[in-house]
Amino acid sequence: SRISADDLAALNQQLDYINEHDEHGDVATGDQEINESLIDEVFDNLESNQTAAEVEFEASEAQPGSVLQNQLRGVLKRLLKEINKYNMPLCYRRGDFFDRPPHPVFALRCSLEPTQLYWRKVFIWLPNLLPGCPSTFKCTCGKPLIRNGFNDPIARRVRSMPADYFLLTNRFLCPPRRQNNPGCGRSFQGTDPHILGQLPLFVQRAFPAYITARAAVSKLVMWQMLNTFSSRLGPAKFSGLVSEIQYRTHAETELMYISAANHYRQFGVKQFSAFDDPHGYAGSPPSTPYLKGLFTDYTNANRIYVDRYIASLPLTVASGDHTFAFLKHTGGLKGEPIFTAAYTLMNEHEEVRGHCFVPSKSMTVLQEMFQGVKQGLQDANNLPTQLFYTDSPQRT
DNA sequence: CGGAGAGGACTGTCCGCTCT
DNA sequence: AGAGCGGACAGTCCTCTCCG
Question: Which residues form the DUF6729 domain (predicted)?
Answer without folding.
Answer: 100-285
